[in-house]
Amino acid sequence: MTSLTQQLVDALGIMVLGMGLVFLFLGILILGVELVARCLSRANEASTPSMSEQPMPALDSRLVAAISSAVHQYRASA
């Protein structure tokens, strides 16, 4: 039968190994997420035009009047 000291040393070694592996895995995971985020942001910038290049759609005055009326009636009833 091994001594208590030897068992504690073995337990400490297993604990350090386990914590090291978890730390390594989480570090790799964070780096992977960062790389994917950078790649997707670059692809998104290349595929969508900026806001200044998109024409503003004309607003229908009847639609604006209908929405304004609905908001006014809602606020009056509350």
From TrEMBL:
GO cellular component: plasma membrane
Keyword Transmembrane tagged: yes
Single GO BP term: sodium ion export across plasma membrane
Enzyme class: translocase
GO MF entries: decarboxylation-driven active transmembrane transporter activity; oxaloacetate decarboxylase activity; sodium ion transmembrane transporter activity
One Pfam match: OAD_gamma
Transmembrane segments: 12-33
InterPro entries: Na_pump_deCOase, OadG
Annotated membrane topology: Single-pass membrane protein
Compartments reported by the entry: Cell membrane
Keyword 4Fe-4S: no
Catalytic activity of the protein: oxaloacetate + 2 Na(+)(in) + H(+) = pyruvate + 2 Na(+)(out) + CO2
Record's keyword terms, sorted: Cell membrane, Ion transport, Membrane, Sodium, Sodium transport, Translocase, Transmembrane, Transmembrane helix, Transport
Family designation: Belongs to the OadG family.
Protein name: Probable oxaloacetate decarboxylase gamma chain
Taxonomic placement: Bacteria, Pseudomonadati, Pseudomonadota, Gammaproteobacteria, Alteromonadales
Gene that this polypeptide is encoded by: oadG
